[in-house]
C-alpha cells in the first residue's frame, strides 16, 4: 500500500461506537481503506469490554483497512504499532511533548492516560478503534489510571489547541507511513515500542473484581512483543494478553 494514502474519513455525529459504524460501512467501502470519526459515542468500548466514556470534544476514531495491507509478521503486534502511531501523531503537532506508551495499547503523558486502542477483525478487514482525550478527561471510575488530555499537554507547553479532526488526520498519515515502511520488521517495531514505554509506571493486573494489589514494573519486551515485568520479590513474569491498570 502506498505511503501517502489520501485521508478517507467519514465525519459523523453521535454513534453507538465508531467500530459499530465502521462495520456497517465495510460493504460499501469495497476493500478501500476508510475511517470513521464521531463527535460522541453512547456505547464506546475499550479493551476487555470496558466502557469508554465518550463525551463531545474528544477523538473517537476507527480505521478500517484490508487485512492484506499489513504483513503477517506485523499483524500480531498491530496494537503496538497503533500505540506508536498515536504517540507520533501527538508529538508531531505538539512540539516537545514527551509522550510515552504503556503496554500494550495506551498513550501516556506524565504518568496519565491520554488514550488507547482496540484491534479487531471482520472478514478480510482489520478494524482499529482509537480513543484519545483531546478536550476532556473523563473521570476514572474503575481503579484505572488518572487521565489527561492532548490540549492540557499543549497548554502546558504553550502551544495551540488541537481539534479531534486534526488529530485524526495525523493518525491516518502516520499509520499509513508506518505500515508502508518495507524495512519495518517485528523486531524493529518491538524495539521502538520498548524504547517508548514509560517503565517508571506502577502496573497492576486487572481482576474480575478490580485491581490486583501486587505492584508490577515493566522491564522489557521479548521478541514477540510480550511484556516482561518484575514482581515485588524480584522474580520476573511474562505477560501475553493481560490487561494492566
UniProtKB/TrEMBL annotation:
GO cellular component, alphabetical, reads: cytoplasm
Task: Determine if Iron-sulfur is one of this entry's keywords.
Answer: no
Q: Please provide, alphabetically and separated by semicolons, the GO molecular function terms listed in this UniProt record.
A: biotin--[biotin carboxyl-carrier protein] ligase activity
Query: Which Gene3D superfamilies does the entry link to?
Result: Bira Bifunctional Protein, Domain 2
Domain BPL/LPL catalytic, chain residue ranges per copy: 1-183
Keyword tRNA-binding carried by entry: no
**Keyword field:** Ligase
Q: Which residues form the signal peptide?
A: none
Show the coiled coil region(s): none
Q: What is this protein called?
A: Biotin/lipoate protein ligase, putative
Q: Which PROSITE patterns match?
A: BPL_LPL_CATALYTIC (PS51733)
Similarity comment: Belongs to the biotin--protein ligase family.
